[in-house]
Structure formats: structure tokens, C-alpha cells
Amino acid sequence: MSSVNGLEISRKYFEEFGLPMLHGQFPDWLDRVAAGLIGSGSECFGYDDEASRDHDFEAGFCLFIPGEDVMDRQTAFRLERAYAKLPKEFMGIQKSGPDPVGGSRHGVIRAGDFFLEKTGTPDGDLTAEQWLTLPEQNLFELSKGTFFLDNSGLMNEPLSRLSVMPEDILLKKLAGSLLLMAQSGQYNYMRCVRRADPGAAALAAGEFVRAALHTCFLLNRAYMPYYKWQFRALQDLPLFSELTEPLSFLISSPNDTETAEEKYTLIEDLAGVFIAELMDQDITRATCGDLEKHAYSVNNQISDSGIRNLHILSAI
Q: Which of 124, 147, 168, 253 has the fewest CB atoms inside 10 Å of its own CB, making it the most exposed?
């Protein structure tokens, strides 16, 4: 199997076969479709390696088309057939055939259907409620898309609307994450250890790390991916990439009394790191080391009273 990453394989496949197919058979649609790689596969993020290619990895690309009011079903069907006839193998990698039950990551896809599946709307225009409840891993996937062709903005225009989380939504999510860090790490972790309940202590440490990771992404104005990519994505962030090792230690080390004291000290140190950044970004008015007080202070910075008055954990 090729050592070239999946994004480059997709680009080469499109340039060698997809683009000539469009030029030769659908020249009138070159400025109305979009082609690229976007979705849930690790190759869409540049994270793919030999281990990640054991499933759902293939040669191909996404070919997005407009709605039926612009492109009729017959033309869409012709495009699907033309895509299906492209070479089945490229650089030693097989191209999958059509999925009889749908759900293919590549091939011809209605742009509106794609956004509807990922965001609940066909154009990426979200309400406040949708922003609060939409899984961030979906937004992460959309933020990592790469396009080889999109002259009309078919994909790039909706994606631009989704590229930045509204500030009030971000603050609500941040307030909830800070509160969870306070409850699980500053308050409950050592209580669980002192009760000789290592299982509960491990869960408390895990909750702290999960909320801390979310805080890292939020303070970077970035979307957090699916759990198995969170530590990998953390390494690429401008802020907090150095926390990869200490956060990993908190969930991979034992919870005996001696190690627990070390871990609690680390939890407080990490709280201090986050509080310093909150103050640098001027989104807290609290002046203490208690993450709970900072959580409520951040919530108070929300401009929209409807969002501000929701339960502090409503976006978590």
C-alpha cells in the first residue's frame, strides 16, 4: 500500500481521472460542482497512517452537486455512472463500488444532503439552539475539508458560515467545561481517592481530562474532534499543545495515594494555566484559583440573555 497520505492520493486520483472525466463528459457543469475530500475519515484530517487504513480507506474523491432545482436527476445519475466507471485501483488502493444502502464517503453527493446530515440544515445556517446542540466532531470534520475544485462556492460558502463558532456559543460551552473541570478535578478527585474508591477516582480524572481537552480547543477557537483524535489534534493547536503529556498522564497513571497527590498537584497546575489564559483573553472577571468561580464569570460575559440564562451545562 502506498505511503502517500490519503489526501494526496485523493487529489492525484481526481487530477488524473476525475477532472478529465468532468472536462470530457460534463464541461457545462465544471463551474457548478465541487470536488474534494471531506468527512469522517482520518485521511480527511491528514491523520491517516497504516493503522488507520484497516477499514473504509479507498481511492476516490467526493463530487458534490447542487440540488435538483439546479441539476436534474438524470444528469446526477449520469455523473454517478461516470464516477463508478473510474479505475477501480489507484496507487495500489482499491476504489469501493456503490454502497447499496448508501453512506458512501466518496462519489456523487448532493451538497444539501451532505450539510443536512452533518448539521441538520441544508445550507449550514444554524440557529443558536443548533449551535448549542450540534456535536463538535461534525464541525471539526467540516473544518478540515479540502477542495480541488469549487468555482461556484457550492461547498465553500456554507463552510465559511460554519468555520467560526459564535462567541456567545463558545462562552457557554467554555463555562460548562470549566465547571466540569472544577467538579471532577478540584473537588471530587481526591475525595474519591480518600474513600479508597479507585474506580470513581479514575472516572473523576477522566472527566477532568475530557473537559480540559474541550477547554483547550475552545480557547483556541477550534472544534474538538471525535475522542480518538483529540490528543492527536491537540498537538496541532497554537495554544496548549504542551499539555498533551500531562493530560495523558492523568488518565494513564494509577490512583494510589502517592500518585494521586502528584496528580492533584498537576490538576491545580493545569487549572492555573487555563485561568491565566482566560484572563489573557479577558473573558473572566474572577481573580482566584477556583475554576467554578471562573465558570460562572465566563457565563456572565455572554451577551445574549437567552443563552446566558440557560443552565450552565446546557451546551455540554
A: 253
**Which CA distances in Å does 226 have to 53, 62, 99, 273?**
17, 21, 24, 24
CATH no. of 6-127+137-162 = 3.30.460
How does DSSP classify residue 109?
E
- pLDDT tens digit string along 41-97? 888 888 887 665 544 567 899 999 999 999 999 999 999 999 999 998 888 777 665
Strand 89-90 with 62-65, pairing = unpaired
Q: pTM for the full model?
A: 0.91
Going from the C-alpha of 62 to that of each of 58, 140, 211, 284, 309, the distances in angstroms are 12, 18, 34, 43, 42
Beta bridge partners of 89: 94
Give the pLDDT confidence of 85-129 residue by residue, as tens digits: 999 888 877 766 555 444 467 899 999 999 999 999 999 999 999
Domain positions in the chain: 6-127+137-162, 167-308
Which grid cell is 88?
Answer: 477501480
